[in-house]
Prior knowledge:
Elements: E1 2-5, H1 11-20, E2 25-28, H2 34-37, E3 42-45, H3 52-57, E4 63-66, H4 76-81, E5 85-87, H5 94-109, H6 112-121, E6 137-141, H7 145-156, E7 160-165, E8 176-179, H8 183-186, E9 192-195, H9 209-213, E10 220-223, H10 232-240, E11 246-249, E12 269-271, H11 282-298
Parallel strand pairs: 1-2, 1-3, 3-4, 4-5, 6-7, 6-9, 7-8, 9-10, 10-11, 11-12
Helix pairs in contact: 5-7
Amino acid sequence: xxxxxxxxxxxxxxxxxxxxxxxxxxxxxxxxxxxxxxxxxxxxxxxxxxxxxxxxxxxxxxxxxxxxxxxxxxxxxxxxxxxxxxxxxxxxxxxxxxxxxxxxxxxxxxxxxxxxxxxxxxxxxxxxxxxxxxxxxxxxxxxxxxxxxxxxxxxxxxxxxxxxxxxxxxxxxxxxxxxxxxxxxxxxxxxxxxxxxxxxxxxxxxxxxxxxxxxxxxxxxxxxxxxxxxxxxxxxxxxxxxxxxxxxxxxxxxxxxxxxxxxxxxxxxxxxxxxxxxxxxxxxxxxxxxxxxxxxxxxxxxxxxxxxxxxxxx
Length: 314
């Protein structure tokens, strides 16, 4: 059996895999090696380098392990036609992403950007306008593994958490749950709106100008899911017209942002270059999910972790 890794991992991780699975021919190419592609039964990828053409060439392919949560750049229809198993690493992002979200919120609430600015300018000033997180209300779009962890941390700070998903079904660490249809009714009460939604047909363009009209004029909007949640011009207009107080953006419609993008010049926007999930523990956690599933795969077990419904895209 040939397993192709299309991204680099540390030598110690390569060695651990070879020692644990001595009968498997691992190919740590660090790219989509076309010479190995035709042999590979399993491909481990970040999900951005596989097209329909590569899937056609991979005659022996049976399983694609995606070391990411997002699948929007993958040829899901072709994979479904071939009946290829697709799994991802959903859940491993919850700690770094929740910490990133909380860090940005506390930074804004406690005026850290202004403090840093005063320091750079050599200015001693206490005119900060700081506020408290305690007693605020947060809506979390997508209260899955990541959203629930964000909710847990926010609740520890005394925040009332409202989870919002397609069904409105109860999720952990949410004081209240609503469906997408009910979102508009709760936006006027929210001090913070956080999205960690994936990109699916249901979530593309989910937020419109009407939603921003109903937000508080000092609300913090945070997008840590996918950039196609809202048309960027809609968001720019809402910020220009001061319909909301601030936006923290880790994802964008097109990445990377060009150097002349207006977000860079807007005082009420924080641009984060899609790094909220980055951590020294990312690859080790990904490999834990992979090795767990690989053992099941080798034993012929079908109840693998994080199996993707290719019709739904998650």
